[in-house]
Protein: Protein NUCLEAR FUSION DEFECTIVE 4-like
Amino acid sequence: MPKIALKAGSRPPWVGLAAAVWVQIASGNSYTFPLYSATLKSVLGYNQQQVTMLGVANDIGESVGILPGIACNKFPPWAVLLVGTVLCFLGYGVLWIAVSQTVQNLPYWLLWLALCIGSNSCAWFGTPLLVTNMRNFPLSRGTVAGILKGYIGLSAAVYTVICSLVLNDSAAKLLLFLALGIPVLCLAMMYFIRACTPASGEDSSEHVHFIFTQAASVFLAIYLLSITVISTTVSLSGTVSYILVAIMVILLMSPLAIPVKMTLNPSKKLGPPVGSSENLVGSTQIDPLLTPSSSATYLGSFHEGEDSSDVETLLAVGEGAVKKRRRPRRGEDFKFREALIKADFWLLWFSYFFAAGSGVTVLNNLAQIGVALGVDDTTMLLSLFSFFNFVGRLGSGVISEHFVRSRTIPRTFWMICAHILMIVSFLLYASSLNGSLYISTALLGICYGVQYSTMVPTVSEIFGLKHFGIIYNSMGLGNPLGAILFSSLLAGYVYDAEAAIQGGSTCLGPNCFRLTFLVLAGICVLGTILSIILTIRVRPVYQLLYAGGSFRLPQSSNHS
Structure:
């Protein structure tokens, strides 16, 4: 792949992270489907099955990110983001034309395809943000992943506030905002998101900056939850609404305070990075004069004797010598096809698939679950899930980063904990006890966020950062597959069967989803078993990667 120029200095990575927060919020546009799905049904005359299939199109577009994963290793971040802006404009533009009835009688297949294209912009926005920032902060992968995934968890609440307080709950205005406003925002921010020279080692100021960013996101989450509750219970004037939205915008800008502070109060410039920083941006160039890090030595001793036939020999080439090509080992950079043949890849894939599939099933049917259990206004359920989903995403990044550094506990251990709590959550749903609906929704939101945010750095630590984009996005395929298998087929079939018994199209009572919840609990039992096996397998790798209490970049395997 072509060599990507690195931006030097300690400030540019933080400018890029601040810009990434805005684009990450924009990349949550797929979460807006519940805000305009009812309008699609009423204005275009669709039945519930047709609307459900549009929801599947939304999930497919959001989660299919193989192409942006490949593109991240071949093109600079701005080019990948540019593709996302075009897809967002085209996809949501067609939906706006249909909902506003600017053009009437558009075929159903065209709207299905447009929704796929529009929601696929999420992958083209989110992938370069995650890949670039994790390469810019390679020693704090869990923290960075938690922050970025936390903000995308808040995006649903941000869009809800904008739709209700600014756009007057108009689906047509919302789709126009998605078609025009989001591309303009991304065009303005893409210049600042670039590959930078990573820090040479641990920096106490970096830790403080991350704490500030996390605290700002928590404050934003509390603020969004508060104004959502207020706006649903009290009628607000136009002036007050705009003031509340302006405060939200200021809070979204808070990460920019870090590079501003670094400009006004510059600190001592960091030295050159140790190890091969080229590996972080995909270059295959290796300087033989660089001294390997201590973990490279540890990893070498760990893999000694793993395969006696894999003894490295030197082949004379011209005046120099090169190492014989070999397959990478855990902790080194894997190509996608090399990762596919590893048991760790499939253990992680199925573990995440079981969690994501069961979680998205509840999320897609949360409104119907609330109605079935006697909750008429399900807005609070959606807000509750969104808030605690953010808590799980951000909190898992902080907690997993602390324990992996202090006790070398693999991040997959927290996937085990999340699976177990998801089992408890589904059993609470099935029990239909008084108050259990809100408790189980909050608990599931946390676990869903933990699963997603933990999977991201785990992929980078086991399979490396060089081809992280495509490997990470292949894990995300669990979302649309889960939506099809568990939501459309399982939950939809059980719901319709019970509704038929009751003699109507709407199902009421705990039996509407009880069987679904019990099946999902069983699925999470399988996910727990797979996560335990994976954790046992990768524990020695984490003990070596985090020897000494901080992450060490392993020596390149030179297999590109």
Observations:
- The chain is about 70% helix and 0% strand.
- The chain has two domains: 1-199+206-263, 333-551.
- The first strand starts at residue 314 and ends at 317.
- The longest helix spans residues 514-545.
